[in-house]
Amino acid sequence: MIAGGPIVVTWRLHRMQWTGMVVRSLAVVALGAAVAAGLDATRLTAGFTGVLAALVAAVVVFATGVLILLPELRKLYAVARRKGQL
Question: Is there a contact between 25 and 61 (Cβ–Cβ < 8 Å)?
Fold first, then answer.
C-alpha cells in the first residue's frame, strides 16, 4: 500500500498503459483467493488429501495466471532477449 502513491504518480506522469495488466493481475489474485476459500469451505485442508488438493489448486491457479498474463510475459521475455539476459 505504501508504494501505491509513487506508482500512481509515475503512471500518470508518463501516461503509462498499465490498466489492462493491473486488472488481469488482480483477477489472478482474486482467483487464488477464491480457490483458497473454496478449499477451506470444503474442509480439504487436512492430511495428505489437503496437501494434494492444495498442490492441484496451486498448479491450476498458476497455469491460469500464466494464461491470463501471457501478453505481459511475452513482452518481458522479448525485452530480456534483446538485452542478452536470456
Answer: no
